[in-house]
Amino acid sequence: MLSNQSPAPTAPPSEPIQTSVQAPLQSRPGVSAAERAAMITYLILGVVEALLITRVILKLLAANPSSSFVRFVYNISALLVAPFQGIFPSPATQNSVLELSSLVAIAVYALIAWGIVRLIAILGPRLSSNTAS
């Protein structure tokens, strides 16, 4: 059955719907040479710290040194820990070793990287103003 009702009243036409067009997001201006050098320094620090932390954990958990991964980590990180060997004794229980020289290396390399980045920050504006001339 059809009803004889009139259609529901509609709201009076208001302003036309406008779609807003947003300007594209502003991309970050080019990274300066000083910022890039700081990023690279922190990237290298991250890799070094990851290797050293992995070494500490593997030694603490008495990982099997004949495993290829463990041998790889020990061989690569041995060069990084060598300057700090013998500063402190390495406490050991059964096969587990707390290698304090690795912990000292982690702290020293972090301080060195921080110092390099601070030096870059200090010299950065001078370097960029000299190259712009």
CA gyration radius, whole angstroms = 31 Å
- Cross-sheet strand order for the largest sheet: 1-2
Q: Can you tell me the number of structural domains? A: 1
Strand content: under 5%
Instruction: List the secondary-structure elements in sequence, H or E.
Output: HHEEH
Strand tally, please? 2
The tally of helices reads: 3
Quick overview:
This protein is mainly α. The protein has helices at residues 33-60, 68-81, 100-132, and strands at residues 92-93, 96-97.
Kindly describe this structure:
The protein is mainly alpha-helical and 133 residues long. The protein has one domain (33-128). The chain is 56% helix and 3% strand. Helix 1 packs antiparallel against helix 3. The N and C termini lie far apart (87 Å). 11% of the residues are buried.
Summary tags:
2 strands, 3% strand, 133 residues, mainly alpha
Layout of helices and strands, plus pairs?
Elements: H1 33-60, H2 68-81, E1 92-93, E2 96-97, H3 100-132
Antiparallel strand pairs: 1-2
Helix pairs in contact: 1-2, 1-3
